[in-house]
Design brief:
Distance between the termini of chain A: 57 Å
CATH topology of chain B: MetI-like fold
Shape of chain B: flat
Shape of chain A: globular
Structural class of chain B: mainly alpha
Strand order of the largest sheet of chain A: 2-1-3
Oligomer: heterodimer
Helix content of chain B: over 70%
CATH class of chain B: Mainly Alpha
Number of helices of chain A: 18
Number of domains of chain B: 1
Structural class of chain A: mainly alpha
Radius of gyration of chain A: 30 Å
Number of domains of chain A: 3
Strand content of chain A: under 5%
CATH class of the largest domain in chain A: Mainly Alpha
Largest sheet of chain A: 3 strands, antiparallel
Strand content of chain B: under 5%
CATH superfamily of the largest domain in chain A: MetI-like
Distance between the termini of chain B: 56 Å
Radius of gyration of chain B: 27 Å
CATH architecture of the largest domain in chain A: Orthogonal Bundle
Number of helices of chain B: 14
Largest interface: A-B, 89 and 89 residues
Number of strands of chain A: 3
Order of helices and strands of chain B: HHHHEEHHHHHHHHHH
CATH superfamily of chain B: MetI-like
Helix content of chain A: 55-70%
Order of helices and strands of chain A: HHEHHHEHHEHHHHHHHHHHH
Chain lengths: 417, 311
Amino acid sequence: MSELNNTQPPQMEFSDDLRRRNLSGRIWMVVFRLSTVVGIIALVTLLLNIINQSAGYVHYEAKVDPDTLRVDGIPLEEQSKEQLMSVLQNNLSSGAYNKLDRDKPFAERDRGEVYDLVFDRVVKYKVEETWLLWDSLTHSREIKASVPTEQSGTELKFVVWANWDFLRRQQSSDPVLAGVRTAILGSLWTISITILAAFPLGVMAAIYLEEYAADNWINRIIRTNINNLAGVPSIIYGILGLAIFVRVLEPFTSGTLFGITDPTTANGRTIMSAGLTLALLVLPLIIINSQEAIRAVPGSLRNASYGIGATKWQTVWSHVLPNAMPGILTGTILAVSRAIGETAPLVVIGASTVIFFDPENPFSKFTTLPIQIYQWTSRPQDEFRFLAAAAIIVLLAILLTLNATAIFLRNRFSRRY
Amino acid sequence: MKQIILNYPEARKSLKRRPRWGESIIQGLLIFSGFFSIFTTIGIVYELGKEALLFFREPAVNLWAFLTGTQWQPHIEKFGILPLLTSTLITSTIAMSIAIPLGLGVAIYLSEYATPKTRNLLKPILEVLAGIPTIVYGYFALTFMTPLLRTIFGQDTVDIYNMASAGLVMGILILPLIASMTEDALSAVPRSLREAAYGLGGTKLEVALKVVVPAAISGISAAIIVGMSRAIGETMIVAVAAGAGPNFTFNPFKGAETLTGHIVRISGGDLSYDSIDYNSIFAIGLMLFFITLTLNIISQQIVRRFREVYE
C-alpha cells in the first residue's frame, strides 16, 4: 500500500532514516563506552584516594629529643638492646622501669620491642600535623618551611604508614606506635576456624546434592534454600552468631568446656564464635562453587569406575573428587577472600572492643583487619585515617594474593573433557 | 568350579546384601551436610522470630506504632521503624540510580561492542571491583565522596555524615554486580538471533537494544533485583558514612541511620542480653531478612518464569 502511494523515491527516505539510525547508534555507543570508563575511573579514584592517605609528611613534637638520647654518640636507631635498656633506665623512674620488667621481663623482649618502648615512654612523639601524599609531593617546600625543625624535639618526617614496623607492631592507642599485628593474627585465626568448619561441610553438601540426592521435592527445597542463603545480608549472620554462638553455645565458644579459663575472655565473644559465624556465611558460596566443579566432571568417568566394580563412595572419592578439586579449591579461596573482608557480622558478635594483646588460642578475644580499619576510620583524627589507609593496603594485598592464587589454580589445573 | 556355578545366584544375592557400613555412615554424613543449610535457615528464622517476639511483648512496644512511628528513640521508649526504613530506602535508591544505568551500559558495552581483547581486560577489573571489602568503600565514602559533595554543594547544605555520599558509593559497589550478571545474561543470547537481526538490516544499536536486551530481560531484571537486595542489606558503607542516630528526613544531604547501620551501632558496644536494645536488633534483623528474602525469591521466580530457552 504505502509503496504504491509513495510519491517520493523510496531510496531517499531510506537513507535519511539510515543516517538518523546510525547517528543514534554512534551516540549510544559513546554512552556505553562512557559508563565503562566511569566504572574504571571509580576504581582508580578509590585506589588513588587510599594511596594518597597512606603516606606523607608528618610533623612530630617529641617530649625528649631523640638526638639527646645518644649513647656514646650512637643514635637510637643503631643502638643495641642493652644500650636501649640503659636509655630507658636513665630516663624513667626506677619504679616505672621495674613495672615494665614485671609486665614482661626485659630478657624476653627483643630489640624491636625495647626500641618501641623507648619511643613510647621516653621520646613520646606527638603528631602535630599531617599532610596527604599529594600535598607532600607538590608543596614539599612550603611544608618544610612551615615546620620549625631547628627547635629541639620538633621533627618533620616523610612517613609511609604501611611500613614494616606497622605490620610488626601491636595495636596501640598511640597512632605513632600502632600496628596491625594483632589484627592480622586475629584474621588468620578466624579464617582458619572458618575454613576448618565450612570446607568439609560445604564439599560434603555439594557431593550429596550432585551425586546422591534424588530429584525430589525435599532436595529441590535444599537447592532453593542454599541460593536464598547466599543472598541473605551478612549482618543477619552476625545476629544469628550473636544469638547462637555467643549466647547459647557460650560454654563451648568461650572455652570453659575445655577447661580454659582465660581472664581476657569475654562471655563467648571469641575467635571461635567469629570463625563459626563466618563459616555459616560462606557455606552457601562454597556449596554452590563446589557443585559447579563436581557437575563439570564428565559422567563417563563415573561409569568407567562403576564398570570395574567400584562402589558409589569409591567412585566419588577416587575419581569425582580428584577431578573436581581444582574447581572446588578455587571456589573456596574466593569464598574465603569474601570472609576475610567481612566486617559487619563480626561487629555484631562483639569484636569491636579495642584489643591490645595478640590472640593466643581460638578462645581469645580478638580483632580482625577489617574491624581495625572500621575503628580507625571512625576516629576523627587524621592520623588514624592514615592508619586505616595503611591497613586497607595490607588487606587488599592479602586479598589480591588470594585471588591470584585462585586464578593460578584455575588456569594450571583446569582440565577440559 | 561346579560349585561356584551352582551357587552363582546365591553369591550374587549375598554380594548385594552384604552390609557396607562404611558406605552407609558416609552417606549419612553427606545427607547431614546437605540438610545443614536447612538448619541454618531454621536457625535464622527461629532466633530472629523468638527475640523479635520478646521485643513486641515489651509494654513500650506495639506493632502498629512500630510500623508507623516516625521516631526511633529507645531512651524515651519510642520505637517507630520509619526513620530507619526511609533512610535505607533513600540510600538504596541513590545507589540504584547510579548502578542500574551504569551497570547496564557497562554490560551492553562488554557483551556487544567490546573486542574480545578489551573484554578479557575489563572483566577482571570488574571482578576486582566486586571483590573489594565493603569497609574499604565505606572509607572511600567518608574520605573522598563526602568532601567532594561538600565542596560542590557547600559545607552548610551537606552534613559530614550524609546519605547521599553513602548512596553514591554504594552505587559504585553494586555496579560490578549488576554489570557482570547482566553481561552473563546478554552473552547467553544465541548468536543466531543477532545474525538474524543484522540480516534484516538492523544497526548495531538496534540489534543490541531491540533484540538482545529483550531476549535477556529476565536475567537483567534478576540482576537489578539482586542488586537492590544487596543495597538494602549493605552495612559498612552506611555505618561509616551515613551517620549515627535515626533521623526522619528525606533530605539526602542529612545524616540518618539505616536499618543495618542501627544494628551495627547498637551492637558495637557490649550489649546486655534481654535488654530492649538487644531484642530490638532482632526485630530489625527480621524485617531486613524478610525484605531481602522477598526480593531474592522474586528474582529467582523471574528467571524461572520468563527465561527464554534457546538451543
